[in-house]
Prior knowledge:
The structure holds two protein chains of two kinds.
Chain A: H1 2-24, E1 25-28, E2 31-33, E3 44-46, E4 49-52, H2 58-67, H3 110-119, H4 127-134, H5 147-158, E5 185-186, H6 212-218, H7 225-235, E6 246-247, E7 251-253
Parallel strand pairs in A: 5-6
Antiparallel strand pairs in A: 1-4, 2-3, 4-7
Chain B: H1 2-29, E1 33-35, E2 45-46, E3 60-62, E4 84-87, E5 92-94, E6 102-108, H2 115-130, E7 135-141, H3 149-158, E8 166-170, H4 173-182, E9 187-189, E10 195-197, E11 200-204, E12 210-215, H5 222-232
Parallel strand pairs in B: 6-7, 7-8
Antiparallel strand pairs in B: 1-2, 1-3, 4-5, 4-8, 6-11, 9-10, 11-12
Amino acid sequence: MIRSIIVFSLFLGSFFAVAQENLEMKIVKGGSFVPLYGSDSAAVYVRDFKMDVYPVSKQDFLEFVANYPKWRRSNVLELFADKNYLRKWQGDTYLGKDINPKTAVTNVSWYAAKSYCQEKGKRLPSMDEWEFAAMASKTTPNAQRDSIFNRFIIEGYEIPKTFKNEIGSTYKNYWGLYDMHGLVWEWTSDFNSVLISGESRQDKSTERNLFCGSAAVNATNLMDYAAFMRYAFRGSIKANYGIQTLGFRCAKSIKK
Amino acid sequence: MIKVFKYFTQVLLCLLMLSACNTTKKKDIVAIVYQCPMDCENGKTYDRLLSCPVCKMDVTVITEDSKVLSDGEDVASIFNLTSKWNTQDGETIMLKELKGEVLVMVMIYTSCKAACPRLVADMRNIHAKVKQDNVKYVLISIDPETDTPERLKAFAKENFMDNEQWVFLQGTLDDVREFSNVLSVKYKQISPIDFSHSNIISVFDKKGVLFHQQEGLGVDNKSTVDKILELSI
């Protein structure tokens, strides 16, 4: 009898842990899609995965640096973050009156974002995963060809200082994820796989379709000018950068 | 009927136990203690952000565990990285085990037909010009699934780079991605056997701090050689 209770409660325990996580993460059903850089129109397959509903907030990150002193502004190694790291915070573990803790954390380096996700038992989403999740509009998982949705994204890029808005203030997409567009840019685990920066001019094997003129002509999906902007942005940044408009959210693989 | 009742109580019991469990777990994760920065109230602490009732300043977080974190390494040193790597000789090392020597690093993959042979040739040319013993030449594979220690060893032999000065490293996909960011190298798998990648040779001083980078293929390596010589003295 007692044993059955224990077994049963263990079973329920795992159930509740999962339920808890489902509140903050949503499942994105995988599939094939053609990302912008697929010059040969090669479709990429993305497996099912989980993604945070919101970008990580300043309050979340404040708790993280409180528990992990090595990621506080005064302790962080130069190797992992430039001088803009958490720049506007009033103190190491103190935002200050002028900063809304419900806004997305920005001015975080890739290393810090990666470490944050790791400590939560998660990881950063890959670029393909992020793009896959972000092409969902409110009603459909793939709105790449939805001109209204694309215009909404591009117009979002034109609105200044959206990083000052609270998380959850934009729209909820098909997967139940908020703020995939219209709030902040987001780090991805392999952002540095976009080869369009300075050195790529000297390299032989560059992605020519990502260069300005030719890119606009050759891009697989002309509607996806917004995606082009995201790839160009990723190609121009380094992992230790802290940028005011760049935040992140975590993802997690689903064990089969 | 009694059976049903039994099950019902079981479920209820479990629920109770679980909710108890969950709360403690949550507390563990977000246990932050705030205190007035002026300590107006003799060590009184709060569990959330508010203003000190005496001096009206916002309370700040206090934690005791602010210890030295970088083990005395330079704050910009790659020896702060804790990733583990397999060498061509099957040893597992951390980068800080290479401390004390000038490091010349490049990212390659052995099945590469286009740029890598030339990058490797560039490395050999630098080595030939420098002629110093206290310099290590480190080649990190961006294709760790193919480039096993055995394969790296074979590659080293084929290319006459099989001695103590040459180190070939295999890491996890994650650690390789991280290290590529440290070197500002970009790379992407474009087919099962091919990668596109930037061609950068990086020079680190004896403390593991990035000192110089040479970009491109077959470029004039004079300044790189000079920098290495300068550091190795």
